[in-house]
Amino acid sequence: AAVEVSEKDKIIHNIMTQYLPRDVDSILKQIVNHVEYTLARTKYNFDEQHAYQATAYSVRDRLIESWNDTQQYFTEKDVKRVYYLSMEFLMGRYLNNALLNLGIESQYQGALKKLGFDLDEVEHQERDPGLGNGGLGRLAACFMDSLATINYPAWGYGIRYKYGMFEQRISKEGYQIEIPDYWLTAGNPWEIERLDVKYPVRFYGEIKHNGKHYEWQGGEVVTAIAYDSPIPGYDTYNTLNLRLWSATPASEFDLDSFSRGDYYSAVASKEAAEKISSVLYPNDATEAGKELRLKQQHFFVSATLQDVVRRFKKKDRPLTELHTKVAIQLNDTHPTIGIAELMRIFMDHESMGWSAAWATTTKVFSYTNHTVLPEALERWSVDLVEKLLPRHMQIIYEINRRHLEEVVKKYPGDGDKLMRMSIIEEGFPKMVRMAVLAVVGSHHVNGVAAIHSGLVKSRLFPDFYKEQPDKFLNMTNGVTPRRWMQSANPALSEVISRWLETDEWVSNYELCRGLEQFVDSADMQREFREAKRTNKKRVAERIKKEFGVEVSTDAMFDIQVKRIHEYKRQLMNVLSIICRYNAIKRMTPAEKEECVPRVCIIGGKAAAGYVIAKHIIRLINGVSKVVNNDKDVGDLLKVFFMTNYNVTLAEDIIPANDISQHISTAGMEASGTSNMKFVMNGGLIIGTMDGANIEIREEIGNDNMFIFGLLEEEIDRARNELKYGGYQHTDSRLQEAMKQIEANKYCGKDVSEPLLKNLQPYNDYYLVTRDFSSYMDAQARVDEEYKNQTSWVKKTITSVARMGKFSSDRTIREYGEQIWNLEATPFVPSSVAYKTV
Ligand SMILES: [N-]=[N+]=N[C@]1([C@H](N)O)O[C@H](CO)[C@@H](O)[C@H](O)[C@H]1O
């Protein structure tokens, strides 16, 4: 049917009809325009930082165009949207990713060149927004890129922390120091402050019943303000929205206290409000358990749900149909309070009855678990929830009462099952198990790799799995090939595109299988090696600059970068480095000839309060100092702890890997995602049968990986053997290394003692001593294999070719088909209301 076009539309339509032109000269004008009109600087005098800002604003203009059209198109098509709720979004730098996804990098290169700037240098001006801890936060970012690229209607919702992940510095003694990361010093051109999008969020207070429904009154109210960032898809017009909330005081100023002359509390309430979104809790895979953390969770979830319900209600239809247009994914238990919050909104604001409210709520939410580590499973004391969120505690009690009623009906008298399946953990104090609430309130629950999803069913929620097996799914993680290959590794990406004669693999990774037919081609092998050498050279220069040490790019670059955590066993890595060092010290010149030189790179942050993890960093720096200054060793072994590991550093060093380490105690790394990035960037893995390592091995083949160590099902027995003296390691290399540590060869007693204590059989919970010999055998296999560079490069080519499963596009398609039931909705500029290309 013809679309009714108002006069106003006709006028609007005839201005700004075209998308911003993409030629170099137009882009140059747009950049200089922003220097003048946005940065208010003269076009004759602006430096690299200003050039970055102006470039960012001009790219943002383009994103805003397709962003507005995409949202309008989704509204016009009345599509179902998924809302990804996450306390963390580790986005990394925006500029280069936006230029590549818009397919406009070379034009910007040309325009900036004409202005006397180098695009690479300009991109380095950008701060890396560290709004996340590690894998979980970065996964959310990769997912946003894939959601946009495969044209799924989606929004990301989170918190706009003023202080992101702390900046890590290393003292001259080798200890980690945490520096607050105020990342907004130069502002953020990639966000739009939405002063018109704000919601009240309440805390504390009391509950009244007004005869019709409950009312939550009193307490504290803060205002959530929205900050929107456009998320461009690759090679599509679709541009999604990431909405991050920032807390401000409900009333700008508490005039009453002020007029009472109580100036301090007038300001205090302002600060208290802003504190809610001020800092990210730096814990990875461990819960914070602090009141402010729960406040942060309720803050962003309440604002989000109010926003989602407002959007749904734009069209006149019953809220009992919310699930037909809205899917909400809980990124771990952090947003789980949302289940009680949606019930509150439905019943207290929308007058829905309990059953209708619950029926709709459980059709809206689905939950992803990211770890089985007991210390990471969030539990809040009932007292705290009752104090902070009294209405929610009421609702949680009622959810639990009705839930357990069903359990009792089916298993009368089975008190243990009741206890295991209860959202409330009895005891002093009583606790609310957020993971159980998430399972009870969700229509689907998934783990993030096959082995992990198995443990979620068998170890975390066996009773629930027994009742509803179909509720439990596996969604193996993935990473976006845009940032982690095309942007981070142009050298290798260029080789792949040339041999495949297309760069479509960037949005359809399965096409890379086509590389396998060339695996025996000397030319392809040479080009893969040259790309690797280019990346190793860049990292060698970085090491020279940062540590003043020359490294040879003929050496094998051995990299382990991830959060420092005992289960990730960086300690086992540094112990093997000490053994390698001792072995080299004993080598004859002839043996040294045969020895494969290694550059060992380790990096990662330890949570601020995680003492043992910080000790491990101190030991690594101690070993690095001794080894790197030992003339006997020379180029055969170099060790570096790369400071302040974050997304930008990962993009720089991952392409330079020959071998990367993913050596967690089996059953403890839910998935891992850096393992995928390393192999996609032409390296091989030494690892345990844990997390996604297992599926990577299935996809690329056992010959292309160096697997070692106990299997998950062997762990409990091994722990008991160690604990009760059934097993004592006899590895003389390990004993020698531990003796040296005890002698404080690499660090002081403050560090050596606690670390050695944890290696004692009864204490070695992470089985470092138990897996050590098998690990060293695998390391010896790596050395042997690396000597044959042709076979090595063939393994890397085969591996790159077979990594299609680990593109986050595959992961998101599975979520879309099996959990969210979404339609890909590519925006096609057609109807009158839209611009034309
Ligand atoms: N929390 N948490 N979980 C993790 C990571 N630490 O962020 O989530 C990541 C993303 O799912 C996993 O890859 C990783 O194994 C797991 O430990």
From TrEMBL:
Transmembrane segments: none annotated. It catalyses: [(1->4)-alpha-D-glucosyl](n) + phosphate = [(1->4)-alpha-D-glucosyl](n-1) + alpha-D-glucose 1-phosphate. The keyword Transferase applies. GO terms for molecular function: glycogen phosphorylase activity; pyridoxal phosphate binding. It is an enzyme of class 2 (transferase). The modification N6-(pyridoxal phosphate)lysine is found at residue 677. The keyword Glycosyltransferase applies. Keywords: Allosteric enzyme, Carbohydrate metabolism, Glycogen metabolism, Glycosyltransferase, Pyridoxal phosphate, Transferase. Its cofactor is pyridoxal 5'-phosphate. It comes from the Eukaryota. Its EC number is 2.4.1.1. One of its GO terms (cellular component) is cytoplasm. GO terms for biological process: glycogen catabolic process. CDD domains: GT35_Glycogen_Phosphorylase. Allosteric enzyme that catalyzes the rate-limiting step in glycogen catabolism, the phosphorolytic cleavage of glycogen to produce glucose-1-phosphate, and plays a central role in maintaining cellular and organismal glucose homeostasis. Belongs to the glycogen phosphorylase family. This is Alpha-1,4 glucan phosphorylase. It comes from Rhodosorus marinus.
